[in-house]
């Protein structure tokens, strides 16, 4: 049995989070919506374009959080909101419907697992969001590396998860074999 097994599945934090259309647009611009062409992705970056209804970028859900002491059950000491040595590892979003342009959600952060990576612990949480109406919106799963918190003898990874294998990459100075390429298709700098 791992050191943290007794808290897996428990709610680490909960609270309410509100947003308006301005916050949703600011997020969209911040993640690069419309960067290549300002007339593209107007549904995310404006609220007043004729014939284009505003939408919210799905990853906006990752902003939704609470100010609670989520790390308190780990008994690591120090600041339980922002523990020292925590590094963001990975995040995913799952939605059952589009995020409204403005609204209020009830959030619940649940501990899915803690894995022993040797020198660090991998903490996996899920933040579940429910709209004010009671309708479930979706969830965001976050994986955090807690440096210096490993070596407790727990499982190394979630059951069924495979070891990461570095993909093979073709070096830039090697040409992938795909048959002869007409000279006209070559970039000007590479034409004879």
Helix and strand pattern: EHHEEEE
**In the CATH hierarchy, what is the class of the domain at 5-19 and 60-159?**
Alpha Beta
Separation of termini? Answer: 67 Å
Q: Identify low-pLDDT runs.
A: 174-181
CATH homology group of the domain at 5-19 and 60-159: Hotdog Thioesterase
Category from helices, strands and their pairing = mainly beta
CATH architecture heading of the domain at 5-19 and 60-159 = Roll
Strand order of the largest sheet: 1-3-4-5-2
H/I helix tally: 2
Portion in helices: under 10%
Strand content: 25-35%
Radius of gyration: 22 Å
List the helices and strands and how they pair.
Elements: E1 11-19, H1 21-30, H2 42-45, E2 86-95, E3 103-116, E4 120-131, E5 136-147
Antiparallel strand pairs: 1-3, 2-5, 3-4, 4-5
Describe this structure in words.
The structure is a single chain. With 192 residues, the protein is mostly beta strands. It has a domain of 115 residues: Roll (Thiol Ester Dehydrase, Chain A). It contains 2 helices and 5 strands. A 5-stranded antiparallel β-sheet has the order 1-3-4-5-2. A hairpin with a 3-residue loop joins strand 3 and strand 4. The chain is globular, with a radius of gyration of 22 Å. The relative contact order is 0.19.
């Amino acid at each position: 049995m791992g050191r943290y097994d007794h808290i897996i599945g428990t709610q680490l934090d909960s609270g309410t989070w509100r947003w308006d259309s301005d916050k949703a647009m600011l997020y969209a611009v911040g993640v690069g919506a419309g960067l290549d062409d300002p007339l593209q992705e107007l549904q995310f970056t404006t609220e007043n374009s004729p014939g284009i209804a505003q939408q919210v970028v799905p990853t906006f859900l990752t902003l939704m959080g609470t100010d609670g002491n989520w790390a308190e059950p780990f008994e690591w000491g120090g600041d339980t909101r922002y523990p020292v040595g925590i590094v963001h590892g990975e995040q995913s979003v799952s939605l059952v419907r589009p995020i409204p342009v403005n609204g209020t959600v009830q959030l619940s952060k649940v501990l899915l697992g803690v894995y022993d990576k040797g020198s660090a612990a991998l903490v996996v949480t899920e933040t579940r969001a429910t709209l004010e109406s009671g309708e479930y919106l979706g969830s965001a799963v976050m994986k955090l590396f807690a440096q210096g918190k490993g070596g407790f003898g727990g499982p190394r990874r979630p059951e069924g998860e495979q070891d990461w294998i570095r993909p093979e990459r073709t070096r830039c100075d090697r040409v992938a074999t795909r048959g002869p390429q007409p000279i006209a298709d070559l970039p000007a700098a590479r034409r004879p």
